[in-house]
Design goal:
The chain has about 300 residues and is an alpha/beta fold. The protein has 11 helices and 10 strands. The chain starts with 11 loop residues before the first helix and ends in a 7-residue tail after the last helix.
Length: about 300
């Protein structure tokens, strides 16, 4: 096989036209598509189906069409559960429960119009809900549903305003909850800024656990400096390999490695999906991101 890569920028019409041009090539055997607009490819994928061209959907679920053969993405629910398990372990919540103590927590989650954000939140709550229910975790703002904690368009300014409002109203004495759980490294930076402005010092006993998501370079620096407790690293090389392998296996008649036949509904069908996990990055292991070439030592 020969592979060719095309970049559509942020224009879904351009992407659709690119696909139409590719469909004119009799040598075309498969398409791997990362959609600019998950709702904008219905017509052109109908044309691909008429030509029996299989479509592998990459990382962003293409909606409202039966003409997606497979999907490859990160398992956001499992990643959410991993975030929550690390909170339980690092904050020793089981011991806190045994001692009849409590920890306070606030949430800043992803955009409400993004299914991945919902999956991540659901995974977090699958683990943490029991601690909230029995009072081991206390959210003083009362915002514990996805609608209440989600930040439209993952806007950092909106997240910062919401968290500052919660801290001013509910944590005037302590200056901070014990745990700030976020769905984006950018939200974690906003939390750090609010706390530093209030006079708290990173690494001190008063500094809370702040969780991130994305393993941006700045997040790794903040982890090394003691500002952030941990973030989650998604290896896109592995995701890309998974998508390519799905196409190869389908074209060669091999069994396609589908890990999920139930979770990914595009409004027309459940799409068989290959999922990748994530790795927690904290001060003890962030060197692996240098070792694997994600970042330089600097």
């Amino acid at each position: 096989y020969e592979a060719a890569m095309y970049f559509a920028g942020d224009d879904s019409d351009t992407q659709a036209e690119q696909i139409r041009e590719l469909l004119q090539d009799e040598k075309l055997k498969a398409l791997v598509i990362s959609p600019v607009d998950p709702y904008g490819l219905t017509d052109v994928l109908e044309e691909a189906s008429e030509l029996s061209i299989p479509v592998i959907d990459y990382d962003n679920l293409i909606m409202d069409t039966p003409n997606v053969k497979y999907f490859v993405t990160f398992n956001m629910r499992a990643i959410g559960k991993e975030i929550a398990k690390n909170i339980v372990e690092k904050e020793e919540l089981d011991k806190v429960r045994e001692d009849r103590g409590a920890r306070t927590i606030e949430f800043l989650m992803g955009s409400p119009d993004d299914d991945d954000s919902l999956f991540l939140f659901n995974g977090i709550m699958e683990v943490l809900q029991e601690y909230i229910d029995d009072g081991t975790l206390i959210c003083r703002s009362g915002r514990v549903t996805f609608d209440e904690t989600s930040i439209m368009d993952q806007n950092t300014d909106t997240a910062k305003k919401q968290l500052k409002s919660e801290i001013d109203e509910f944590y005037s004495l302590e200056k901070t909850p014990d745990i700030i759980c976020t769905a984006y490294d950018g939200f974690a930076y906003a939390a750090e800024e609010i706390l530093s402005d209030s006079g708290l010092e990173p690494g001190s006993d008063e500094w809370p656990m702040i969780t991130g998501y994305g393993s941006e370079a700045q997040a790794v620096k903040d982890i090394a400096a003691g500002k952030m407790s941990f973030t989650m690293f998604m290896d896109r090389k592995e995701l890309a390999k998974g998508g390519a392998q799905m196409a190869i296996d389908y074209l060669t008649g091999e069994k396609v490695d589908v890990k999920d036949y139930s979770q990914y509904d595009n409004g027309v069908k459940i799409v068989g999906t290959f999922t990748c996990g994530a790795q927690m990055i904290d001060k003890d292991n962030y060197q692996i991101l240098v070792d694997n070439g994600t970042y330089t030592e600097d």
